[in-house]
Specification:
heterodimer; A: about 850 residues; alpha/beta; TIM Barrel; 6-stranded mixed sheet; 36 helices; B: about 140 residues; OB fold (Dihydrolipoamide Acetyltransferase, E2P); 5-stranded mixed beta barrel
């Protein structure tokens, strides 16, 4: 039997062209019993990681490729034969992304290890043949032959279109004349025939929504994933070309993506030297912070450094420390969030809350069983985060990049875009979208129709075709963007790993998303922006007093009184109506109470009624119950309620006898949606472990039931503690320096839940005078004035930043303005602006 | 010009010329009228006991529909008047009428009952919107 392999497939990562996810392709290929399958998306490698991993999981050999638009060759399919070919493909796509248009000359040195297939739709060769300009087609082929030699193939295709047969005959003729092999390919843009409509609608979105007028969809409905039998029948007379697809697949199947093989840059020549350097920094800081160093700290630091050494993570920490040092030198506020805050090493390197003092469990962050790089998420002052990026890109140059994020269709957006593509009038689209509840943004329309009874008679139900298309499109990617703050730093050039494009700010962006990075096992840092850091930094600027805000003791009574009153507008994490309500009930008396508060106010605990349980037990309204005495030390602080993920880990470790890595795996498994069988197996494991540790089966069952109820709701204590520290600092500033605190909030952009008017109103109710803008006293931002706050000039309507700057500059240069005429003549302001300034009383 | 007219005058001027009100909250200009019609401000509300029928007015600041224990969709609304914030809860039974106002208007007038649990702030459980016919609104 002649084998056929699909070598020309575009998934939904060819945005608004392909109509299926790579996983769906693999699943379909598995059903059709394909041993090989290729993915050749348009000018991108964004989908290849998930395609590769999924294919391997199904036992199918993945063939990596892409189709690339080249100005003097048209759309060419490239397939990767080996690692050189892969690197070259990454470089070609990077060039294409950066230059927007490439020519054959640009890829002159980038052809080794690649197979080139021309002759498909949109290739210049086919276009010339269709126009009967055979000489041009031959000229084009000769150029490609010169570059790719025996790795060049002419694609012959039959999608049952009127001119397919004629074109094929000419292609076969040329191939014989010029000794170029042919290969049968079948372009796939949808998996099933009936999905051709969606492909056409996607092209309409490109035309009508993105105004790409020259896009035309694939004709007919034969661009689906055909079976081998279908292809053999269709190309019964071209067995050789058919077989060539198999031959190419065999050539490409040896290539493997270098997953889990690329580490972070080496700071020192040997891991031992890096480790020594890291240890020395940690011990020095420890001696400075906790002199004399207690045994507890010493034991903890030694244990953590041992784990770090075994996992070869010293370089990882040194790189992150380097970035932190830079931010410190530049006075850019920085903190660590997430489970990393539970590490003493992290505390010593980056500051934050003391994990020993706050009883934070290191194993939640890093344990023996963890194979991947741990997450270290760093929060920086939002306004100055770009300085940190500049530093990283300057230091690591071609070895680092930001991450991509893939935008997928959600229901509302899909209705809007597809409705537009289907020629629905704007008013109708608005009507259909406006009545779709916002909660549907994260779920598909079918689930929404089941979940929300009020959608029973929704007008969209009458739009059958639109509804069908929306259902098909939901969760498919339609564009890529830059990830909020993910940065990868590698030991070799990023271009060797993946293709790159440039962000709006000109930073390199790797065509990998967050999940891909995990699969690659790459070193990633999250460089995030936190507006509250900006607000705190600005408050300190106005304070003009040297207070080490990060080092203030965490036991300031006045601060806790402010929080207990629920006076928390502007206080980090505690300002939403629900939080204000909870903080009043909880009445935090110490730092741990803030940690609990932040952990309890989450959708899970709210749904699980953990808040009331916690408060009722604390206030003696409900008895505190422990299924067995071994749980008392673990759950004592939270009155017998499981509030933190760390507690689940401790229970699995101490009660069920699991190692910390097993306990962490258990915790992760418990937080996911589990099938009945998975749940049974977890239960069995837990109970067997508990019995082995000497507990009764009935007690073990009780504890498991308790853990399974709360595990999904638990919050990472270390993350809550690091946030609680920022909460405390903001609360402290609000209590002791309200004027500066409000100024900081007002000038930091949109911080928290409330608009500036609410913050200003609160400041006023607290006796801080507010002064309207004035041309002689106002600045570009809210600023202190006579023990109160004066509005910036930009709060006057029709007065933009540019005009405000002109006024301020003129004032600083030639003195105060005497009257409106003086102002108008010196600053050349429009009549409208003068009028507004007058009405506002600003002159 | 008496004080009320002075406030009214400045409120209007700020509304015309400023992006964020400064001297006076938008509700201050109609406070005398609201007082006559039995509306209370956030300060008075905070001192009230449980289960009182009240009328409140405020600028809509936040509308939130978080997950609840019973999975019913309750709207938590934050209103603001010149004295501070008012937390309003709109339960599904009263949702259509009150929610329409809250979602479509900048300033809303609501009738509701007070609810105060020990240690918490006084909330208003909205019953219905109040219609006020006056040129100054």
């Amino acid at each position: 039997m002649t084998e056929f392999v699909h070598l020309h497939i575009t998934s939904s990562f060819s945005f608004l062209w392909g109509t299926f996810l790579p996983e769906e392709l693999i699943n379909f290929a598995y059903q059709l019993k394909f041993p090989y399958i290729a993915l050749t998306d348009n000018n991108t490698l964004l989908g290849i990681t998930r395609f590769y991993v999924c294919a391997k999981k199904y036992g199918i050999d993945p063939i990596i490729g892409a189709q690339i638009d080249i100005k003097d060759a048209g759309r060419i399919v490239f397939l990767v034969k080996n690692i050189d070919g892969y690197k070259n493909l990454c470089r070609i796509i990077t060039q294409k992304n950066i230059k927007k248009q490439i020519v054959l000359k640009d890829i002159y040195n980038l052809t080794s290890g690649l197979i080139c297939i021309t002759g498909g739709r949109f290739s210049l060769e086919r276009i010339y043949i269709q126009k009967r300009q055979i000489d041009y087609a031959i000229y084009n082929l000769k150029n490609l032959k010169e570059l790719f030699r025996q790795n060049l193939y002419i694609a012959i295709q039959n999608h049952k279109l009127s001119d397919d047969k004629k074109v094929m005959d000419i292609q076969l003729d040329i191939s014989r004349k010029f000794n170029i092999d042919t290969v049968v390919t079948h372009e796939v843009a949808y998996l099933k025939k009936q999905d051709s409509d969606l492909h056409k609608i996607f092209c309409n979105i490109l035309k009508k929504y993105h105004h790409k007028k020259d896009i035309s969809p694939l004709p007919g409905d034969n661009f689906f994933l055909t079976s081998n039998a279908y292809m053999e029948k269709l190309f019964a007379n071209n067995k050789n070309a058919l077989y060539n697809s198999y031959k190419i697949a065999k050539m490409c199947k040896e290539f493997e993506l270098p997953l889990n093989k690329i580490g972070p840059p080496k700071i020192f020549s040997s891991p031992n030297k890096s480790y020594k350097r890291l240890s020395s920094i940690c011990f020095k800081i420890l001696a400075r912070k906790n002199s004399p160093v207690s045994i507890e700290y010493l034991e903890r630091i030694v244990k953590e450094l041992e784990v770090i050494k075994r996992h070869k993570l010293s370089d990882f920490f040194l790189i992150a420390r380097d970035i932190y040092e830079f931010s410190k030198k530049r006075n850019i506020r920085c903190s660590i969030r997430g489970s990393a805050a539970s590490s003493l090493v992290v505390y010593l390197l980056f500051g934050g809350v003391d994990p020993v003092e706050n009883n934070l469990l290191f194993e939640r962050f890093l344990n023996e069983g963890r194979q991947d790089f741990p997450d270290v998420d760093m929060d920086f002052d939002s306004e100055r985060r770009d300085e940190v990026f500049e530093f990283i890109f300057d230091k690591y140059r071609d070895r680092c990049g930001l991450l991509s994020t893939v935008l997928t269709f959600r229901v509302r957006g899909a209705v809007r875009m597809i409705g537009r593509a289907m020629d629905y009038p704007y008013s109708e689209i608005k009507r259909l979208c406006a009545t779709l509840p916002s909660a549907m943004r994260r779920i598909d329309i079918d689930s929404a129709l089941k979940k929300y009874p009020e959608l029973k008679n929704h007008p969209i139900l009458k739009e059958h075709k639109l509804l069908e298309m929306v259902k098909k499109a939901t969760s498919l990617p339609y564009a890529s963007s830059t990830h909020l703050g993910g940065v990868i730093i590698l030991e070799e050039p990023l271009e060797n790993i993946i293709s790159i494009h440039l962000s709006n700010k000109g930073y390199p962006v790797a065509e990998l998303d967050k999940e891909d990075v995990e699969k690659w096992g790459l070193f990633k840092l999250d460089i995030l922006g936190l507006r509250m850091h900006t607000a705190i930094a600005k408050s300190l600027y106005f304070l003009k007093k040297d207070i080490s805000i990060d080092e203030i003791p965490l036991d300031d009574e006045a601060t806790y009184k402010t929080l207990q009153k629920g006076d928390t507008i502007g206080v980090f994490q505690l300002e939403s109506p629900g939080q204000r309500e909870l903080v009043r009930r909880l009445k935090p008396k110490n730092f741990f109470d803030i940690v609990v508060e932040i952990s309890l106010f989450r959708p899970g605990p709210v749904k699980g009624n953990m808040m009331s349980d916690f408060l009722d037990r604390r206030d003696g309204k409900q008895p505190i119950f422990y299924p067995c005495k071994e749980l008392i030390p673990i759950l004592k602080d939270t009155n017998g309620v499981i509030v933190f993920q760390e507690q689940v880990l401790e229970i699995a470790h101490s009660f069920a006898g699991m190692s910390y890595s097993e306990a962490d795996a258990f915790r992760r498994a418990m937080t996911k949606d589990r099938s009945k069988e998975e749940m049974e197996s977890l239960k069995e494991k837990f109970i067997n472990g508990a019995i082995k540790s000497g507990h009764d089966e009935s007690v073990a069952e009780n504890v498991f039931d308790m853990v399974s109820c709360f595990a999904a709701y638990g919050f990472c204590k270390a993350h809550a503690a690091s946030f609680a520290h920022i909460t405390y600092i903001s609360g402290y500033l609000k209590t002791h320096y309200p004027l500066e605190f409000y100024l900081g909030l007002l000038n930091a952009g949109s911080v928290g839940s409330y608009p500036p008017s609410v913050i200003l109103n609160e400041a006023k109710t607290k006796g801080i005078s507010l002064y309207p803008p004035h041309v002689n006293y106002s600045d570009l931002n809210f600023s202190p004035y006579k023990n109160g706050i004066i509005y910036p000039l930009t709060t006057v309507k029709f007065l933009g930043e540019k005009t405000a700057k002109t006024i301020i500059k003129e004032r600083e240069k030639k003195g105060l303005f005497k009257n409106e005429f003086d102002l108008a003549s010196r600053c050349k302001l429009s009549h409208r602006v003068i009028k507004m300034l007058k009405i506002a009383g600003a002159i | 010009m008496n004080y009320n007219n002075f406030i009214k005058n400045w409120c209007i001027r700020e509304q015309i010329a400023l992006k964020i009100p400064c001297r006076f909250h938008p509700l201050e200009k109609i406070r005398p009228l609201l007082k006559n019609k039995g509306f209370i401000d956030s300060n008075t509300l905070s001192k009230m006991k449980n289960n009182n029928i009240v009328q409140i007015a405020g600028k809509v600041i936040l509308v939130h529909t978080p997950p609840t224990r019973t999975s019913t969709r309750v709207m938590f609304v934050t209103l603001e008047d010149e004295k501070g914030l008012i937390d309003v809860v709109i339960i599904p039974e009263n949702a259509p009428e009150c929610a329409r106002d809250v979602l479509n208007k900048d300033i809303v007038f609501l009738k509701g009952t007070t609810r105060k649990t020990p240690g918490s702030i006084v909330k208003v459980i909205a019953i219905s919107p109040v219609r006020i016919k006056n040129k100054s609104i």
